[in-house]
Input
Amino acid sequence: MKVTGARLASFLRQPGPEISAVLLFGPEQGLVRERGSIIAKTVVDDLSDPFRVVEFSGGALKADPPLLGDEAAQLSMIGGRRVIRVVDAVDGVSNIFATYLETPSQQTLVIAEAGNLTPRSSLRKLFEGSKSAASIGCYEDSDGDLRSVVQESLGRFGLTASADAMAFLVEHLGANRLVTRNELEKLALYVNGGRPEDAAVVSLDDAIACIGDSAAMSLDLVVYAAAGGDSQGLDRALAKAFDDGTSPIGILRALQRHLQNLHVTIGKVESGMPPDKALFAIRPPINFKFKPQFQAQLRNWRQDRLVQALDLITETEMDCKSTGFPAAAGCHRALMRVAQAARVRR
Output
C-alpha cells in the first residue's frame, strides 16, 4: 500500500492492525527518521526499551537473512507488541522482506528506513503491492510544511514567531527535518529557557541570533555569487553548501527568494520609490554584509531577465523532485546559467 496526501497524517497516528511493516524512503533522511519514530511510538512509548525495540542495518540483514524472522518471532518479556527498525535498507534485502511478508508476525511492527528509491525499486514495489505493508516517501518540506513545523515546534514551548522571524526561519531551515527540530528547540531555549509557561513571541533578532549563522552565510554566498555573475565564487560556495548538507532544493529555493526580492525591489524603484526605502522594505532584511552586492545587482538586472531566471529555477526544482534526476548536478547547472545571465549588463 502506498500512503500519500491526506491519508498520511492519520496513518502516522495509527497505521492500523493489518499493517505489519512500513517502508520509509526518500532524500530527506531526517524526515525518514522522524516518521519512523512517530510510527514506532504507536506501538512502544519508550523507543529505548531494549525488550520491545530492536534496530539493525540492512547490511546486517543481508549478511544474516534469518535475522528478521528470528527477531520478529521473539516475544516481549514484559508483554505488548515489539518494533524492529531496519536502517539503511536497500533493494538487496527485498527478497528477505518478501519472505517475511508471506507470514508476518502480528506481534511485531517492522519499520524499514531507506534512502532515495526509484519507482522501479524492488523494495518499493514489494511494500506498495502488499496488503499488510505500507510505503511512504519522505521529501524536503515545502515552505508551507516548514511553517507548520515551526509553529508546532515552537508551540510546544509556548512560543509563536513574528512574521519577520517566520520568514527568516523558513528561509534558513528545512534541509533536514531533524536538524530543523534541533535548531527550533535551541531557539526556544534561547528565548525563554524552554518553559511553556513563559509564553513569548520569537522576534527576528532572536531568530538571527540563534539559528546557525554559518548555514545562513553559506546560502548567502551561493545566491549572491549566482545573481552577481561570479562563476568561480559560485563553484566554491556550492561545494561548501553541499558539504554542509544543504539540499539542492534548499539552495534553489534560497536563490528563488533572492531573485524575487530583486524583482519586487526593482519594480518599486521603477515606480518611483527611493532605492534605500525599497531596500529597507525587504523582509526578512538583507544581511548588511551583502547590502552593497544587492544594490549592485539591482542596477544590473532587468525584470524580464529575472522572470526568465525564476522560471528556470522553478523548472529545475520540479526536475529535482523527479525520481532518478541528478539533483546536485541539475542545481549546479541551473545556478551557472543564472550566473551567466547576470553577466549580461542592462
Remarks:
- The beta strands are 21-25, 53-57, 82-89, 108-114, 133-137, 159-161, 200-202.
- The chain is about 55% helix and 10% strand.
- The mean pLDDT is 89.
